[in-house]
Amino acid sequence: MGTGFLASIPLLDWLALGWFLFAWVGYGWFSEHSRWAGRGLMGASHRFRLQWARQLLTRELRMTDAALVGNLMQSVSFYANTTIYIIAGLLAVLGTLDQVIRFAADLPVAREASRELTEVKLVLLLTVFVVAYFKFTWALRQFNLLSILIGASPVLADGAHAEAAARRLGTVNSLAGDEFNRGIRSYYFGLAAVAWFLQAWLFLAVTTIVVVVLYRRDFSSPVLATLAEEAAAAE
Hints:
The protein is about 80% helix and about 0% strand.
């Protein structure tokens, strides 16, 4: 059964799937853990989150900070709710696989695919959005923790205790923001996975385009240049 399953999927599809997984995991590592990660949008955002935390500790009234965290939580909650609907829809589609195969075969530039290959495509798409859901919900919990920390933080203008408290707030804020970013990244790669229903070569191409788009936005976008200028001016 295992040999028949492997033989039913063309080599190009296996190569496209391998490139997709490598790009998804590899870009995540590159943007977060490589030596260039600090120069990207995530690194710049962390510096401004730390600056926000330092300013927060000097204020007695923190309604504005609470409103900002609430706005962040609302955005994350929207994506988490949307993702659970997508997952439910994909699970429903798995129950109507024959109709999906016929529908996909009628699409422009699409080719006929075996039942086994269509199942792999749907499972991959489902996996991507399940990962996104876990990322969004974990980000939401961390933003909840951030709101608790804001409420528990005393007024500290300067000193070692103030810096330690600011770094704690900034780090929790960044951890939550990073999880949200990973969820958004999953959406990008989910769009690439949809292209697999048409052609394997299109799947390869769209995955590559997604990596290029993410890189440009994370490492060479106008917003990053603006943040870098602001950081340099503050120093």
